[in-house]
Task: inverse folding
């Protein structure tokens, strides 16, 4: 049986995302009222909509602990991280991580993309609540950060799976 964990949207992310969608609606309504050709107005509207909805493809809908891997389900391509590739695992409780965005979305749907995390270096972040990050460090040096509602249970289950794997090897 696979355990499914849902992401944890902080209040700030909820408010920011809601405000951006209101802003999108306002901008598109203004664009559609321009005195210009309809094809131009529609093109501009689709470009604006596309830019704001692009982060949705990286948004982590849920995280699943499968038999041999962690699976991050996204609207775009899913991420699969084998347990055997995990070097270290850290959960930072009530400690907002300091980060600088390299590329990605900072606010709409959370902090999604490649970030520089103070003390950890570059990491692919799927943080919907930056106050409760879980950081996975792989053996090849690649890092992932995400946040879940049931972070304590996730950490306990993943640590059990990692201990079991390391005892078998």
Result:
């Amino acid at each position: 049986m696979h355990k499914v964990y849902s992401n944890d949207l902080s209040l700030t992310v909820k408010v920011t995302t809601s405000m951006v969608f209101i802003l999108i609606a306002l901008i598109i309504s203004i664009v559609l009222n321009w005195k210009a050709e309809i094809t131009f107005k529609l093109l501009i509207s689709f470009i604006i909509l596309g830019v704001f909805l692009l982060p949705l493809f990286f948004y982590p809908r849920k995280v699943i602990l499968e038999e041999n891997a962690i699976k991050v389900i996204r609207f775009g391509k899913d991420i699969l991280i084998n347990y055997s590739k995990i070097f270290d695992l850290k959960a930072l409780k009530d400690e907002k991580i300091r980060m600088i965005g390299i590329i990605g979305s900072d606010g709409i749907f959370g902090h999604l993309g490649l970030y520089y995390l103070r003390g950890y270096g570059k990491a692919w972040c799927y943080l919907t609540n930056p106050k409760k990050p879980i950081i996975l460090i792989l053996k090849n040096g690649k890092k992932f950060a995400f946040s879940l509602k049931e972070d304590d249970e996730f950490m306990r289950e993943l640590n059990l799976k990692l201990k079991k794997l390391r005892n078998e090897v």
Observations:
- The first helix runs from residue 11 to 32.
- Helices lie at 11-32, 38-53, 151-168.
- The chain has two domains: 12-55, 84-168.
